[in-house]
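Customer escalation, tier 2.

The customer says the design service returned an amino acid string that "doesn't look like it belongs to this structure." They asked us to rerun it and document both sides in this ticket. The original structure tokens are below, unchanged.
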């Protein structure tokens, strides 16, 4: 009998890794019966023809958001004290005191944080969250679905969605093995694990070490290093277009060399548009020196702000906009979903750009796979004022400590240096590709092309 696996999407962030790659095909080749347990508003059956079980009940306990926020802050407090490191408070978002409801929520959250900011307290807080979620109609609804379909294992595509808690509790209470995929390279130190599953799949040895370091209740035999399907399409040469075809499709000038500016979300880089402006100005200056440069601006897929418009309109001679092919199916950030077509676009943006520039984005890894350098901006803009977040704190985060050296990216620490750095890279006198590739292996694991296969092998071992 083939083993039946539920691939669980609590939200849309896992679609890119587990619906649009060859993940499903590889699992079927290994003899698994695959059903997508779908909590999103994106229909896998209608859009992709996949077998799915839709979760229509989206209810959560009315106190879940408060307890979850308290849990996260309590974990960050414990990490701060345990490791004597003040980086952890910088992961916190400020409380909201506008209006009576928000005042109550914030004060109650602070009381919970004060009560539970210890390792034993965090365990109690997690137990309380689980008790709340077991009382919801969604828990009963999911339990009934599991009893009806009888999967042998539930694989959750992200560890960070509160919408997954009740469903995974239902599976555990029925004795069905549960596995969570740790979604992103920066998630573990940021206290973004909202679920406790029987097993965890992580990208690399680095992330396994972090998982055990930050979650003492997780045992080593529960954590498997698998890699991530996120980067697999970059190794698929069937996605590659010729330079002529790509340039024609996107109205690019075949005689120009293009630099990619990869946009950031407003929280990470609130003044991001001004770094784009700086790059456009550097290119314009270099064009007077005999270069023929343009900028491809690829926005952050979940950023729909108009903040770049003035810069783009003022530099139409330099900047060409190539938007990610993502689909907005709801109002929340995690309801802006990738499409399979975007894999091809991103592959070719990487392939046909000279290099990428951005603020602390993981696109450094997308580009080093294509042997292309990356400039990280790390200087303040003159528009910075009180109440606007300085991007400099991003590079102090724990996940940047994984760099094998400060040459894993080209850091621009002064606006006045940008033009010279761009020139050095174009002239072949500066690159981070060698160190960046070493960093990529530290973060994403040693076999980035085998992640989907390794995950299925892991699930097979668990079921044995």
């Amino acid at each position: 009998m083939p083993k039946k696996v539920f691939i669980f999407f609590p939200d849309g962030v896992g679609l890119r890794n587990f619906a649009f790659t060859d993940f499903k095909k590889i699992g079927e080749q290994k003899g698994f019966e695959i059903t997508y347990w779908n909590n999103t508003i994106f229909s896998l059956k209608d859009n992709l023809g996949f077998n799915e079980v839709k979760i229509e009940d989206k209810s959560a306990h009315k106190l879940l958001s408060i307890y979850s926020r308290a849990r996260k802050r309590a974990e960050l407090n414990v990490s701060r004290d345990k490791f004597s490191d003040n980086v952890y408070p910088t992961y916190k978002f400020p409380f909201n005191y506008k209006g009576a409801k928000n005042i109550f929520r914030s004060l109650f959250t602070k009381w919970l944080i004060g009560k539970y900011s210890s390792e034993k307290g965090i365990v109690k807080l997690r137990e309380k969250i689980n008790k709340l979620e077991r009382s919801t109609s969604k828990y009963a609804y999911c339990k009934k679905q599991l009893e009806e379909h009888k999967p042998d294992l539930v694989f959750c595509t992200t560890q960070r969605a509160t919408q997954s808690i009740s469903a995974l509790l239902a599976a555990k209470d029925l004795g069905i093995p549960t596995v969570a995929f740790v979604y992103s390279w920066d998630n573990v130190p940021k206290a973004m694990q909202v679920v406790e599953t029987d097993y965890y799949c992580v990208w690399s040895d680095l992330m396994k070490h972090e998982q055990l370091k930050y979650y003492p209740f997780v045992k080593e035999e529960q954590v498997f290093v698998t890699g991530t399907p996120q980067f697999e399409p970059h190794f698929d040469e069937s996605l590659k277009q010729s330079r002529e075809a790509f340039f024609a499709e996107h109205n690019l000038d075949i005689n120009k060399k293009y630099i990619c500016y990869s946009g950031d979300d407003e929280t990470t880089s609130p003044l991001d548009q001004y770094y784009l402006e700086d790059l456009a100005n550097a290119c314009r200056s270099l064009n007077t020196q005999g270069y023929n440069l343009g900028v491809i601006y690829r926005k952050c897929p979940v950023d729909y702000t108009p903040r770049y418009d003035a810069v783009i309109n003022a530099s139409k001679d330099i900047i060409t906009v190539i938007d990610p092919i993502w689909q907005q199916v709801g109002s929340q950030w995690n309801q802006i979903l990738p499409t399979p077509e975007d894999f091809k676009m991103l592959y070719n943006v990487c392939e046909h750009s000279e290099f990428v520039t951005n603020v602390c984005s993981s696109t450094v890894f997308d580009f080093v796979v294509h042997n292309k350098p990356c400039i990280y901006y790390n200087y303040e803009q003159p528009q910075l004022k009180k109440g606007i977040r300085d991007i400099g704190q991003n590079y102090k985060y724990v996940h940047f400590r994984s760099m094998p050296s400060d040459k894993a990216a080209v850091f621009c620490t002064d606006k006045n240096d940008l033009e010279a750095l761009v020139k050095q890279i174009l002239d072949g006198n500066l690159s981070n590709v060698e160190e960046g590739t070493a960093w990529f292996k530290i973060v994403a694991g040693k076999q980035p092309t085998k992640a989907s296969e390794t995950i299925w092998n892991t699930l097979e071992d668990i079921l044995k």
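Tier 2 assessment: The sequence is consistent with the input. The chain has a mean pLDDT of 95. The chain is about 40% helix and 15% strand. Sent an explanation to the customer and offered a walkthrough call.
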